């Protein structure tokens, strides 16, 4: 492609984006990028934390999700009347990739001005973590790398436009009950590491108990308070782990030390690999397998009961492809079960 044709293509693209733009009231306009480690994590966050009139989904972890709408907010600066907040929500996979950031640059019209670009309203980054995925060893490094990537692309990551949301927080009780290597020490350590990271970077930290319907309104309130910067509307919770809510400016190193006085954030940063290896590794199936195992078993058992052994492999492949798991491993199990039912 010649330079001239490339410039023409860029011009056409810019004109298309401009034609899709809508009048923006900058005082009420909020852009939010939600960075998720999985499709299921995003689904849970959507149902627990986002306003009820929003549905933010991803068809693939390689794509970018989008949702837009207006929300009646109680978080106006004067607190005298309700205002309407216009939200544009984007979903992107983490760890952040160069291609994902390039796509975001186009949709967010990032030209290096970053999150405080006065022409497009404020910009918030929400990073999702998922206790049930059991990838806690990677959390700190992924957060550090993500911030570095954002800064390298010219985004102004300024603390108050950052938040961390740990979904499935109640899963820690299952870890303690079912996996002997997970002890109270590990839970406390991870809590102190996340709080220290949030404190150092000036961002907010929230835990989300997806099994508790009674807390949903609180989570939705916290989300709106976060994106509108009305942090005084969040009721801080530092004691009960599943519902931790620590808006920016609330935590201190002394408060973090009350969990375990021997904790040293500097030691963690100086020997991060040692910290990562101190956390138990995942001992269960990855999330994409674990959460769908019951439905998968049902489908495969039904296939075996039909007795169509000539097309067994072809039919099994279509089922396994739907669940995106280890095909060879599951086929071996299926043939074993087939031989058993024949005898």
TrEMBL record:
Superkingdom of source: Eukaryota
Subcellular location(s) per record: Cytoplasm, Cytoskeleton
A GO cellular component entry from the record: microtubule
InterPro entries named among the record's database cross-references: Dynein_light_int_chain
Keywords assigned by UniProt, alphabetized: Cytoplasm, Cytoskeleton, Dynein, Microtubule, Motor protein
Chief location of this protein within or outside the cell: cytoplasm
Protein name per the record: Uncharacterized protein
Gene that produces this protein: TPHA0L02260
């Amino acid at each position: 492609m010649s330079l001239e044709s490339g410039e023409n293509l860029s011009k056409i693209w810019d004109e298309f984006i401009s034609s899709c733009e809508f009048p923006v009231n900058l005082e009420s306009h909020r852009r939010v990028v939600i960075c998720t480690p999985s499709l299921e994590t995003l689904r849970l966050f959507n149902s627990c934390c986002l306003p009820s009139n929003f549905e933010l989904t991803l068809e693939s972890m390689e794509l970018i999700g989008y949702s837009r709408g207006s929300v009646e907010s109680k978080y106006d600066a004067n607190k005298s009347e309700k205002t309407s907040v216009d939200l544009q929500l984007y979903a992107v996979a983490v760890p952040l990739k160069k291609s994902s950031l390039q796509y975001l640059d186009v949709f967010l019209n990032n030209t290096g001005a970053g999150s405080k670009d006065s022409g497009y309203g404020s910009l918030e980054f929400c990073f999702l973590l998922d206790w049930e995925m059991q990838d806690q060893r990677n959390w700190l490094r992924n957060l550090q790398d993500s911030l570095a990537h954002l800064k390298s692309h010219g985004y102004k990551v300024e603390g108050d436009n950052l938040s961390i949301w740990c979904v499935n927080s109640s899963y820690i009780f299952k870890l303690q009950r079912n996996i002997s290597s997970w002890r109270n020490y590990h839970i406390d350590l991870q809590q102190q590491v996340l709080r220290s990271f949030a404190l150092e970077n000036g961002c907010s930290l929230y835990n989300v108990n997806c099994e508790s319907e009674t807390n949903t309104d609180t989570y939705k309130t916290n989300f709106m308070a976060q994106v509108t910067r009305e942090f005084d509307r969040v009721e801080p919770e530092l004691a009960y782990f599943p519902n931790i809510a620590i808006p920016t400016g609330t935590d201190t190193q002394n408060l973090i030390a009350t969990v375990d006085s021997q904790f040293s954030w500097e030691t963690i940063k100086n020997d991060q690999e040692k910290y990562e290896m101190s956390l138990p590794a995942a001992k269960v199936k990855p999330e994409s397998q674990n959460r769908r195992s019951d439905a998968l078993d049902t489908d495969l058992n039904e296939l075996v009961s039909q007795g169509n052994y000539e097309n067994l492999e072809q039919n099994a492949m279509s089922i396994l492809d739907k669940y995106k798991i280890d095909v060879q491993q599951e086929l071996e199990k299926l043939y074993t079960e087939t031989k058993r039912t024949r005898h």
